[in-house]
Amino acid sequence: MSFGSIRWRLMLALVVVLALATATTAGLTYRAVLAETEALFDYQLSQMALSLRDQGAIAPDEARALADEQLDFVVQIWTVDGRSIYASRLHPTLPARAVLGLADVNVNGEVWRTFGVASEGRVIQVAQPERIRSRLAAQAALHSVAPLAWLALPLLLVLWWVLGLLTRPLRKLAADVQQRDAVALGPLPEAGLPDEVRPLVSALNALLMRLGDSLATQRAFVADAAHELRSPLTALKLQLRVLQAAPDAAARDEALAALAAGIERSARLVEQLLALARSEPGPAGHPAPLDLAAVARDALADLWPLAQARQIRLSLEAPQPLRLDGDRAGLFALVRNLVDNALRYGREGGQVMVALALQSDGSALLTVDDDGPGIPPEDRARAFDRFWRRDPGQGDGAGLGLAIAAAVARRHGASITLADSPLGGLRVQVKFSLQPDGAGG
C-alpha cells in the first residue's frame, strides 16, 4: 500500500492528533498527581508533628523506629530558648532552628521540607529532604500516566482497522475501475459510498455514459461509412475494367468520363464523411467570436462554381453582421452542406435563396430556400438520419448533408427545422442564440 494513500494519510493525521492529545493529557495528569502527592506529603509531616506534640515524651521503642536510616523523616525537638534536646538521627545538613508551620529550609545546598509546631516549653519539627519528596511524587505521577503509553499500540491497531473498514468502499471502487476494459462503460456502483465520494462517482458515471454514447455513435458511423463506401469503390473498379476493355477511342473517352464522375462522387462522399466525423460528439474546436454572415458569404463563394454549372441563381441576404461564439469550421460546414443540398436537388436553372436575420428574441435565423422537389412532412423526421435519401436514384448525394448540419447545430445549441419553401421546394431554418450584445458592426 502506498504511503500516499488516503488510509495512510488519515492514519498519520490521526496519530498526530492522538499524540498531541495524549501528550496534553499526560502533562496535565502529571502536574495534577504531582501536586496531590506533594499535598499528601505535607499532610503526613503535619500529622506526625502534631502527634508528637500531643504525645509528650518519645518512648524508647518509638525513638529507635524514628532513628532508622531507611526512614525519610527526621524529628527534631528544641527548647523554647533554642537548645536542641532531641534528634531522631544525626544528619550533616539538618536545619539548625525550627520554623513554625510548613516551610522550605535550605541547609548547605540541601532543601528540606519542614513542619514545626510549638508545645509546652518545646518546639517540635518534622523534616523531609525535598529531593526524596520530588522523586516519590514524580514516580507516582509517572505511574498514573503509564497506562496511556501502554494503550498507544492497541489504539493504533484499532485505528488502522477502523480506517480499513472506512476506506474499503474506495478500494472496491478502485478495483472495479481497474478491472474494466475499454468497452466496459457501465455505471459504477454508488451504494455504500461516503457522501464525500458519491458526487465524484456520479460525475464519473455521467462521463462514462457520454463516452458510451460517443463510442456507440462512432461504431455506427464506421459501420455506415464502410457500407456506403463499398458501393462507389465497387463502381470505380467496374468502370476501370470498362475503360481497360474499351475497343476504340470513343468508348475509352466515355468510360474515362464515367470514371472521372465516379471519382468525383467518391471524393465528395469521403469529404462529407470526414465532415460528419468532425461534427459528431467529441473534442470540438475552441469556440471563438465570429460573424455568422461572413461565414455564410465564404460558404456561398465556395459553392459559386456549382451554382454556375447548374445555372442556378444563388443569392444571400445578410444586411448586418451577426456575432456569436462558435467553431468556424463547423459552421462553415453547416452552411455549405445546406446550400450544397439546395443546389444539387434544386431545379436546374432555378434559384436558391439564403437569408440571415436578427429575430425579435435576440436570436439569429439562417434560412435556405430552394425550388426543388422538397421533402414531404411525413419524411422530414428521417431526413436528418445519416445516409438517408428519399429517392436514392435522384442526384448523386450520399444522404449526409442534413445529418452534418444537424450535428453542427446541436454542438452550437441551435435548432434546425424543415418546412415548405415559398419557392416551391424545401426550406431549412437554423436558429442560433447570439452573444449578449446581439448584432454588432
Automatic annotation (TrEMBL):
HAMP domain segment(s): 164-216
Entry EC no(s): 2.7.13.3
Gene3D superfamilies associated with the record: 1.10.287.130, Histidine kinase-like ATPase, C-terminal domain
Localization in the cell: Membrane
Superkingdom to which the source organism belongs: Bacteria
SMART domains: HATPase_c, HisKA
Topology with respect to the bilayer: Multi-pass membrane protein
Name of the protein in its database record: histidine kinase
Species of provenance: Ideonella azotifigens
